[in-house]
# Entry
Amino acid sequence: MDRIVRVFAAVALCIALAACGGGASEESAAPKTAAPAAPATNPVDPATASTITGTITLQGTPPPNPPINMASDPYCMKLGAATTPTFIVSEGGLENVFVYVKDGLGTLKFPVPSQPVVLDQKGCSYTPRVFGIQVGQSLDIVNSDETLHNIHALPMANREFNRGQALQGMKYTTTFTTPEVMLPFKCDVHKWMNAWVGVLEHPFHAVSGKAGAFSLAGLPPGTYTIEAWHEKLGAQTQQVTIGPKESKQISFVFKV
Amino acid sequence: MRHLFAALVAVATGALIFAGGLVTSTESGLSVPDWPNTYGYFMFFFPIDKMVGGIFFEHTHRLIASTVGFLILVQAAWLWRSEPRRWVRRLGYVALAAVITQGILGGITVLWYLPDPISIAHASLAQIVFCLTMTIALVTSSGWTRAYVQRSGRQTPSPDDLMLQRVAAVTTGLIYLQIVIGATMRHTGAGLAIPDFPLMFGQLIPPHWDAKIAIHFAHRVGALIVTLAILATTGHVLYHHRTRKELLRPSLLLLVLLTAQITLGALTVLSQKQFVINSLHVVTGASVLVTSLVLTLRAHRARFAADGPHVSADAEASDLPTPLDRRRADPSGSAAFRRAGDHA
# Structure
C-alpha cells in the first residue's frame, strides 16, 4: 500500500520540478539591457527645425463606447456612470491616437527629459489613457483614488512589473530601457482600467487631442515615416518629407 | 472522528479548487501583486473593506488556501499520533508536503506574473492534493476498515475483479490527464480558441489550426475519451457488481457528475466563459476525478488485506501501536516494533 503513497509523491514531485524548470526559462526571458547613454544637448539645430502638424479623422460611425460596470468596488461605483473611452470623437476628429516618428531620424541621439511623465490613477481610470515617453525618462505612477490599484505593465521588450498601491497618494517611479510601441498597462483589481504608453528613443511623439489635432515640433529636415496608432483601429503610416523651417500638414483617416 | 475531520479537509480542498477557479475565471490572479503579504498587510490582517474587484477573489483564495493548509497540517499530526497504518500516516505527510508545495507554487506564479508552466503546475497539483485528502477520508472511513462487509454480515467482500481494477485505474488516469489539458487550455488563454459547440468552426474538425486551437481540440477529444472510459467503468459495475453498494454509488455519482461536467463545458464556451460557469466546470472536473479515484480504490480494496476488517477506524479502538505509543514505550527508539499495519 506504500505504492499509493509513492505514486502520489512521485506525481507531485514531477509537477513541482516541471513547474520550476518552466519558471526559470520565463524569468530568463526578461531583457537585461541597460538604457544607452543619452547626450546632454539636442542635436537638432533650432534654426532649421521643422514641424509636422495634422489631424486624425474618423470615417463612419463608431460603435458606442460600452458602459463600465464598477459594482465590484463601492468607491468606484459612487463616482457615477462611465463608459470605456475607446472612441472619443470631437469635431470629426479622433482623440487618443498616438502619433510618432517611426523612422527617419537615423543615428541621432536625443537628451532624456528631466521632467517625469505622470500616469495618474484617478476616478478609477488612467489619466492619460494614451501617452508617450522616452527611454530612460522617469514615469511617475500615482494613485489619487481612495481605493487600491495595482499597476501592471505588460511589455514585450521591457521588464514586466506589477505594483500594488493600497493608499491614496502612493507613487511608484520607473523607467523603460527599450523602445516599445505600444506598451499596455492594466489594473487587475479594476478590469476596465487600461492605458498604453509609446516608449521611444526620441521626443517626437504626440497624442491627438481636440478635433483629432496633433503636432510634432522641432524635427530636423528629412524624410520620415509617421505612424498613428489607435487602441482599437490599429496603426497607419505615412511618409513625409520636410525641409528646413518648414511646417507640413498631414492627416490620417481611420475607418470603422 | 478522524474520518469526519478527513472528510472536512477533503470538502475544504474542493472548495479551495472552486475558489481557485474563480481567480482564473475572473483573471484576478495578479490583482494582489505581492506574496505572502497582501498590499503590504499581513495576510490575515488585510481589511475586509479593501477586498474589492479582483482582490476579493484572489485574497479569498489565499485565505481558504491557508485554512486548508492548516487543516492538512492538523490532519498529518493527527494521523501521526493515532493512525496505526504506516502507509496512511505517510499519505498524511505527502498531503502536507503537497499542500506546502502548492502554496509556494501559488506564490511564485504571482511573483513571476503567472508564467504558464507554473500556473498549470499549480492547477495540476491542486488536483493531487484533492486526491490525497479524498483518499485519506476514504481509508479512514468505517466502510473501508470493515472492507465494506455489512454489519449484519450478509455481504461478503467480493474477490478481486481484475478487469474492474484496471479499467477504473485507467479511467482515473485519463480524467487526470484531461484535467491537466484543461488547465493548460485555461492558462494559455485557449478556452475560446474554438468558439462554437458542439461543432468546431461549424465543422467536425477545425478547418484551420494554431497552438491554441490544438490545445482546445485536445480537450474536447479528451472529453470524448474520458466519457467512453467512464461509461466502460460504470457499465462494468452495473453489469457485474450491481449489489456492491460501495461500487454502485460512486458509479452512479460518476454518471451524474459526467453529465453535469459535459453540460458545464458546453456552457462555458457558449457563455463566452461566464466566470461562475467556468469555475463550476473546474470544480466538477475535480469531483469527477476524486469520484473515479474512490471507485478505483474501492475496486482495489481486497488488496489492502492488512487494513482490516480487524483494524478499526479509530486508533483508540486498535491495539496496534502508533508512533507516539512507540516513543512512549521506548524513548530511545531502539526497540524494533513491527506490526501488521506497517506492512500494509
